[in-house]
Amino acid sequence: MLMKTQENMGISNITITGSSAAFPQTGQWMHNRDIHALIFGSAWQEKMQEKKLDPDYYEKVLGFENRFWVHTPGMPILHTELTSADLMLEAAERAIEDSGIAKNEIDFIITVTITSPRYSTSMGPYIAGRLGINAPAIEMKTGCASNIFSIVLSSQIIAGGARNVLITCGETITKILKLNPRMAYAGGDAGAAVVISKSSDPAKGILASYINSNGSFSGHMGVPGLLPPNQFDLEHENYFMEYSDTAEDFLNQAWSEIPEILYKKAGIASQDIDCLIPHQVNKNRTAFAANAANISLEKTVNIIGKIANCGSAGVLLALDDARKNKACKKDKTIMLLSAGGGISWGGLIIKT
Amino acid sequence: MLMKTQENMGISNITITGSSAAFPQTGQWMHNRDIHALIFGSAWQEKMQEKKLDPDYYEKVLGFENRFWVHTPGMPILHTELTSADLMLEAAERAIEDSGIAKNEIDFIITVTITSPRYSTSMGPYIAGRLGINAPAIEMKTGCASNIFSIVLSSQIIAGGARNVLITCGETITKILKLNPRMAYAGGDAGAAVVISKSSDPAKGILASYINSNGSFSGHMGVPGLLPPNQFDLEHENYFMEYSDTAEDFLNQAWSEIPEILYKKAGIASQDIDCLIPHQVNKNRTAFAANAANISLEKTVNIIGKIANCGSAGVLLALDDARKNKACKKDKTIMLLSAGGGISWGGLIIKT
């Protein structure tokens, strides 16, 4: 269940009643070719050949094809652009609609983002206010595993008496990416939300969960500039995501250890899982997760070609895809996995 | 208990085992006179008289005397200054020491700040890493009531099986204050932490709690500049706290409604409370809270003269003061109250 030190059996009477993905019409869909043209100009084919860059590398090796952008990486941040709050709001409206639950039956709201549009202001009450929901609301983050943590916390909050918890996530990863071949292809923007609800059916619930954090690699993955904003860091382009390969070994280990812990806690085996939903990093990471969980690629959600890496929204986008396209909506046993910035990592098995 | 829609009886077997306040030696203590001199120069007495400002107003009317600053309001943000993470870290070390609990028995970490030193990076794992604790860790915020929310969430997490939850909070309010007479006197910096623990004594626990949020006034209280940082907002000084009196009526109502709800849920009356611990805004707000809770000022913690308004750290600083100076440490019934940005508000009654 919740704590790594704890070996109990999970939390019953909990299910997923709604999910959503939000890509508002005012953003734009970008194919790899559009990014080639942005970086190298209209003569990108010649330019990339000169630089010995394979234009098909991003699709062939990493699985990136399309992604949704509300901003062009490296350009100034504008007040007229969509923000992560806009994405959260649209995702929340859609997930609530999908759940069929009345707004006044939502008893807690968790907003999640690693790319908030504001400094001190919590997106929790802000989004609650925009939705017209009167309920306690927080903003939380712990890297790309944030939504695994938020579902685990929601299950605790429901065990404590809440009827329904709304988790809504918005990411504008493009606003912290530089427009260069290493970073620009990898990032996408999105909103995604999920409604976690109390169920009268004791067969439904979280069979096992595991979450953990280790800050030793904080410095190897993140935005180095200091807040509040200052001229020095702005001039030195310090408000962009930096990522060093030093964290990679640790991340591999984090991804690897989760499935075994979950199977043991839940007392089930890989063949009992109907659908594996990993955070969407790139196609290799999806394959790595499937292998670690001993689950076939057919049962594993891979939408990286559609969305690229949308930060903490990735696992909820994959969950929404699974619910809508993989017949994972009801009476299925699904495993969610994520690891990322922090480093925080975790997973859970839920019977829906 | 947790949800406003819920009328149950609280969570037993929970207590506070450690608390702390952190004001590292590299910051400085500022008296009102020091701020007079900063704003008006060494001839502040003449200057303030010219402008018909009473130098004693801040103490007489609002109760502000001293406060701890790591930064001079309005000056550039420097990499050499203490950050809210430094304050969290020192507070966490002290609270753990105060609790007598081994680091490896802490099963969850919640970091709280409305003035984070970093953008995407969660302070949760960052602080966990610096403490050498391997445990799931998040960063969360919902204005100045964040720590009421974090204690309520901790109680759920403990009910779910955790042994001890560390909540550590750091605020550098000075970095979002302008150096003017309206704002500069009101703000202070601090770290504060608390360890919430499972207890074998069923008489200890949270007798009642209430938390709520309303985003309708988000725009009237907060830092308006967009993130990630951009030149326009930096040039227009948009990364400073703004506060309009429009939110005041709503805040009064929020503060007022909490005690009655708590008394009713807990089934106790005001005379059963040994100590009232309100978020520290100014001395009028403390008196307002005491009046709303029908508790004497003698039983109400008021340390505003020592610390000014330290944002979400205020209620934990007051809690630490109560535990160390008011004989509130053991077998006492204490009420915590807070309302602030978001707007989020709430309170709880805990038998320690």
Sum up the overall morphology of chain A in one term: globular
Number of helices of chain A: 11
Assembly state (oligomeric): homodimer
Share in helix of chain A? 25-40%
Count of the separate structural domains of chain A:
2
Task: Spell the H/E element sequence of chain A.
Answer: EEEHHHEHEHEHEEEEHEHEHHHEE
What is the alpha-carbon Rg of chain A in Å? 20 Å
Largest sheet of chain A: 5 strands, mixed
Mean pLDDT score of chain A, rounded? 94
**Terminal-residue CA separation of chain A:** 16 Å
Q: Low-confidence spans of chain A: pLDDT under 50, at least 5 residues?
A: 1-8
**CATH topology assignment of the largest domain in chain A:** Peroxisomal Thiolase, Chain A, domain 1
CATH-defined architecture of the largest domain in chain A: 3-Layer(aba) Sandwich
Q: Which CATH class of the largest domain in chain A?
A: Alpha Beta
General description of the model:
The structure is a homodimer of 352-residue chains. With 352 residues, the first copy, chain A, is an alpha+beta fold. Chain A is built from eleven helices and 14 strands. In chain A, the strands form four sheets. The first copy, chain A, has a five-stranded mixed beta sheet, with helices on both faces. In chain A, a hairpin with a 3-residue loop joins β13 and β14. The longest helix of chain A is centred in the C-terminal third of the chain and has 19 residues. Chain A starts with 10 loop residues before the first strand and ends with a strand. The N terminus of chain A is likely disordered. Chains A and B meet through α5, β6, α6, β9 and α7 of A and α5, β6, α6, β9 and α7 of B.
